[in-house]
Each structure stands twice: as C-alpha cells, then as structure tokens.
Amino acid sequence: MQAFLDIFDIYLLEAVINGILLGGVLALLALGLNLIFGVIDVTWICYAELVMIGMYGMYFMVQVYGLPYWIAAPLTILLVAALGAALHYIVIAPLLTAPPINQLLATGGVLFILQSFATVAFGIEFRNLGIRLPVLMFGDMNFSYARLLSFAAALIGMVVVYLFMTRTFTGTAIRAISQDRQIMSLMGVDTKRLYIVTSALGGALAGLAACLLVLQYDVHPFVGLSFGPITFLICVLGGLGNFIGGFIAAFVFAEIISLGGLFSDLEWGYVLAFAFFIVMMFIRPAGLLARRR
Amino acid sequence: MKTSRAVWIAGIAAAIALPFVHRDPYHLHILVLILIWSFAYTSWSIMGRFGLVSLGHGGFMGVGAYVTALLWNHLGMSPWLGIPLAMAAAALLAVVVGYPCFRFRITGHYFVLVTLALSGIVLQVITATRDYTGGSLGYTPDRATSGRQLLALQFDDKVIWYFIALSIWLLGLLIWRWIDHSMGRYAMEAISEDEDAAAAVGVNVTAEKLKITVISALMTALAGALYCQYQMFISPDTVSGISVSLQMAFAAIVGGLYVSFGPTIGAVITILLAETLRIGFGTNAVGWDNLVYGVLLVLFIIFLPKGILGSVIEKLKTQRKPSLKS
Hints:
- The complex is a heterodimer of chains A (293) and B (326).
- By secondary structure, chain A is mainly α.
- In chain A, 76% of the residues lie in helices and 3% in strands.
- In chain A, helix 3 runs antiparallel to helix 4 (69-92).
C-alpha cells in the first residue's frame, strides 16, 4: 500500500495534467493532417517539417528582427499557410490522379527538401526564442505558462476551425467535398480552389502549432522528427480523416508519453506509445471510433 | 535466353576480375558502398514493387546494425552468430508490426504511416538506450585483436569487402529472381490489384504479405549489419530513422522499382551524387545532398514514376514491337 502511495502522488497528478496540456498541441497537429487527408485524400509526410519551418520563422522574426511575439505569430501562421498552399500547388496538384503512394512519397521528398534546406540555410545549431515564460506554482505542482498558453491557443485554434467548417460557405463546401469528390465538381464547385484553401488551412494549423511549440522546445532542422511520427500514430489510431477520433487519440498518446516520461526518459514514453499503438491495432484496427462492421 | 546467360557470366567474371586489375582503394570503397546499398534498396523494392510501400526499413536496418554490434561489444559474440540473430530480431519486428497491419487490412496510407512510425521509434530506442548504444553520437564495434579478424568479420583489405559485397549483391538479385518466378509473385500482384478479389480466389492475403515482408526485413537487416562491419561506425541517423527509409524509397524509385537492376541503378546514382557533392562542396556539403535528393525524388515521381531503368526498358520494348510486326 505504501508503495502505491509513493507512486500515486503529486508528481503523478502533475504528469497527468502536463499530458493534457501536451495533448492540446498534438490534437492541433492531428487536426491539420486529418483535414488534408479528409478533403484532398493525401497524407503530408512532411507535415512536421512545415512546423519546423514555422518555428524557424518565429525564431528569425523574434530573435533576429526583434518583432514582438504577438506580431510574429500571425506572420508565421500566414507564412506556413502560404507554404501549405504552395506545397499543394507545386507537388500535389500534378499528382492528383497518380496512385496515392506516389503522392505520399512525393511529400516525403519535400520532407528531405525542407530538412536539408533548413540545414543548409540555418545550420544544425539548436536555437531558441530566448523567451522564458514564468512557471505557475499550484500547490506543489509546477506548470509552465508556455504549456498552458499552448493548450489554450490550440483549443481556440480548433474551435475557430470548427466554426469555419460549419458556419461559412467555404467550410460547408470543404465538408461536402470530403464526402463525394466527383459530384462536387458537377455541382459547379471549384474543387481546385477548395483544395488550395484546405491546404492553406492545414498549413495555418501547422503554423499555429509552430508558434506554440517554439515556446517550449529549441528549434533545429530535425525537430520535426521528434513529433512527426507521433502525429501519424495519432491520426491512424483516431482513424485518418476522423477529426474527433484524432482529438481523443491525441490526448491518449499525450498521457502515455507524459506518464512514461515520469517513470523513465521521454524517449521511452514514445516507445511505450508505439507499443500501445500496436496493441490497439489488434483491438481497433480501423481507428478508435470506427463502427464495427 | 542463351545470350543473356552469356552476358551474365561475362559480367560476373568481369566483376570478379576487377579488383585484380584496378586496386584504387577509394574506387573500391565506392563500389563496396554501392553494392551494399544496392542490396538494401533491392530488399526494399521486393516489397515496394507490390505496392507495399514501407517507410520502416530504416528500422530494420538499424536493428540489423545495432544488434550485431551490441552483441559483439557486450557479449563478445561473433558477428557470424550475431548477424543471424540480428536478422531474426528484424524479422520478429516485421511480424509484430506487419501481422496486425495485414490481418486487419491496414493498407495504403495507413500502412505507410505505421511503418514510418516504426522507423521513428527504432531511432528513439537507439537514442534512449544511450548508455549501451552511444545514443546519437554513434557506435563503433570493438576492434578485433590480430588473428581474430575472421571471427570478428573485420577486414582491413578492401578487396575482401568487395567480394563480400559483390556476393551479397548477387544474392539480392537471386532472391529477386526467385520471387519473380514463384507463385508468391502472382499472389502478390493479385493482392496489389484488389485484395478482396485475391482473397476470394483463395489467396491467403495475410500470409503472402507477411512472407514478403519478412524476407525484405531479413535482407535489410543483413545489409545494415554488413554496413556496420564495413564502416566500423554506425550512428542512428545513418542506419535508422525516417530519412534512411525515405532514402531507400527514393533510390529504388529513381532506378526503377519494377526491374531487378533498378535499385542497383538507383544506388549508383545516389551514391555517386552524394560523393560528387561531398567532393565539390567539401564540408559545406552537409544538407546539400539531401536537398538534391528531395528535389529529384519529387521530380521523378511527377515525371518519371517508373524510374530511369524502367522507363528505358519500356521505351526499348515499344520500339521493338513495331519492328517485330513488320
């Protein structure tokens, strides 16, 4: 009993809450990826690398050009949104009729390009924003403001996307196109334009995630690799294209990583998450919320 | 058929004779690298040609390299035993990840993402166990004392390595040929066209896919182990992770996924490209080779999805056909 109490203490609670806070940002990333997949039916392997470019954008605007954070953040979101639209226009659009695997590998090529572009242009040094937000003490638990802020901003971002998808004409068209691709163009909808809008939206979500992650992590060309794989696992576990499933899976994974990190290294948290994922594939192969066939 | 056999024999004889005529260590080094990586790329294509696009091969390769090196350094186990064990470990990993994927019809995007995560996770494990593996700083197998080189599979002579790599490369081509002529190939082609239809005519989809995946994983692990024994230095970034997986996919696609020599052509192109850039740019080359890789990968997928060799062969065939009719 004593051993149980030793584990179930204030640190556990702290890890659980930190897991929820981490889950917010992961859910944001998963939402962006799901949006692209649901509407355009491609997977951007390079999604985490877009975030990395956004983080560099933040670093340069804040550290080098001295812009305040609140001005740099919208600029970064716009930058990555433009990058997302460009990615669709240059790489995906010519491949729309190609086998899905080719589209996926082409974005893999973009992953190479972005990563090595960052290496060549910015070097491999770790850089950070130099902003140190205070730490909130609550009882004996410590929470960094950076995490609270990310969580709140991620939630707001998701609500904005939700409102956009349900309350605007473009959003409705995007939801319709994800249901039936062929019919929509017959109904006189400009699918090309909608694809670009969706890609820009997916990029904007990556940009928002970049603004939030840069507060907590140093940026280097390979930073995408530390949360890219986990985002893909979340999307598959939640069911690709399933927004709510991705949302729930993000928090499940965040808790596993956070609690795994409590008892051991953070890397083992990732390994644990992967093991969990394999087990879940046996139980719910089509995703958490899939209807039983 | 006769002439092609003669060409084969002549080609192999020339390859065997080469190091006795030309012994430049740098050229031999490049050749060994090309042959080992060709084998790795071939093992990727064995799956990839049937639409089983895996980005987890970096994981298999990492397992092959690290398990062999760890067994040698920590337990003193000879690579002669260690390599089969490492290959078995990679095969086990392939089954653990592959079985649920195939059993529950995780295909296309899903399969790629799952395998992608696999190579990411192997990288994380290697980094996390830094007390044993040296983490991201890399790892070196202990030098064998003199007289035990054969036991340790460590040779200073590049000519020996050239022959090892050459035989491995030939083994890869033979496996390709064997699969090409087996029933499994028809089963896999049926599966890649339509899984339900294949299952309906009695193809055991899960077993066939698992078989090809395990073969591919075994070969990739062997390539990783040999690469480690040859270079005597491995780091998580050179033998595991997403970039290695993508590099395999890239080379196989550039060379040509559907022809047996395609991956070899891919290896020749990628390694010569990397070496030229390295010599041209010196230490500034860091990143440039991958930048060129990435651009080429995108261009190839858009404009030449069959790869260089695949497109050339296709062109030759279409030119020959009208002449046969006339």
